[in-house]
Amino acid sequence: MQPPPGRRTLLHGWGRTAPTAAHVVRPRTPGQVAEALSRAGERGALPRGLGRAYGDAAQDSGGLVLDCTGLTGPVRLDTGRGEVTAPAGTSMDALITHLLGRGFFVPVTPGTSRVTLGGAIAADVHGKNHHTDSSLGAHLRALTLVTPDGRTRRLGPGPDGGDPDLFWATVGGMGLTGVVTEATLAVFPVGTAYMRVDTDRTGSLERTLELMACSGHRYSVAWLDLFARGGALGRGVVTRARHAEPGDLPAPLRRDPLRHRGTSVPVPPLTPPVGVVNRWTVGAFNALRHGRAPRRRRGQVQPVGGYFHPLDALDGWNRLYGRPGAVQYQFVVPFGAEDTLAGIAEDLSEARAPSFLAVLKRMGRPTPGPLSFPRPGWSLAVDLPADLPGLGAVLHRFDERVLDAGGRLYLAKDSRARAETVHAMYPELPAWRRVRSMADPDGVLVSDMARRLRLL
């Protein structure tokens, strides 16, 4: 058998753990996508965007990886319908910039703008507004999917969408149903490229949850200091926001209220052998961040990038974890399971697990995607050094507690869960498999994650 096309390349996720080699091609048209899929070898094929999944979701060891960042082209905005159609390789940053210049904004954006539209659909990404607006799939009007048999199919979410079951299997399906080449989603008008942000510094997890629960804002998020102990456990900084109107801006900004001001400070490309994220640096950082946050501030004007994507300003920050890399642990538990959330926070605090990135969100209604992550409740995402002693055993114990509470892990962030645990967390997995097998009966589409978690 001929080897798959493309250059053999070592790939890893954003956490920089468990790299594997694959043959990589960069199609630029749906026809080239179909051609590449037809030449996949026995190890199969997989689409990949900008590589922001933390673990092995966008890797295919020994197989063919389609770098879909070449699927770009004109972005078409229909202002009358409030819809935008864009190629799947368009980055969220480029899409936001295009829309803001015309007075519109995306319905959902994740914590980084460095993802492609296709990748965002594959993970059914959520943002700081999930409690009010659900995840990206809820706003997706149509998508174009190339399946391994070479067909190009236009799919929608409803009964007139051609194959709504395949549509929803693709939303959150981690690239395992086909290659998305284009998508249409609903957008909404905004008056500026800025946010009005209310900030509160909290002294406990109870107070943090209380503020998050009573928020009437469209967007809300909390950073937690997981080094704090005792009565200060779960103290944090809660930020809630609305889109600013021109009259909210200081006079100099009113002259160009829709200008999208992006900033990026590159981290030196060298990866240190030992990470700089440890108990001492994180302890000092967390104390400083919490102490310097205002106790109560209302209506601060911030650029959309500063509010939605603060870490994008530090390009390549994942290398701060050194060669061992990072693990992100993200879970959601239902409302009423706050004891589980508090227990995990307390265990991380007592273990002095160094995390400068601990993000709490309130989640709302889910989409019908069988593998879509969000459910009503509380989601906590924590970044940890991958070489932390005993980390694997600790996280497996957390898995069991999350499962017992009726929660689940986020596949786009996972790099180490057990297959049986994930299967129990996603009871609709068999239904998803049936739909996927009809779209890909020969099992061409596969990933390292799919093998590890026995998803197929």
Q: Would you mind describing this structure in some detail?
A:
The protein is of the alpha+beta class. It has 14 helices and 21 strands. The strands form five sheets. The protein has an eight-stranded antiparallel β-sheet with strand order 16-12-14-13-19-20-18-21. The two termini are 23 Å apart. The mean pLDDT is 95.
Distance between the termini: 23 Å
Average per-residue pLDDT, rounded, comes to 95
- Report the strand count: 21
What fraction of residues sit in β-strands?
15-25%
The strand order across the widest sheet is 16-12-14-13-19-20-18-21
Principal-axes geometry comes out as globular
The quaternary organization reads as: single chain
* Low-confidence runs: none
Radius of gyration: 21 Å
- Helix share bin: 25-40%
Q: Structural class, judged by helices and strands?
A: alpha+beta
Please work out how many helical segments DSSP would assign: 14
What profile does the largest beta sheet have?
A: 8 strands, antiparallel
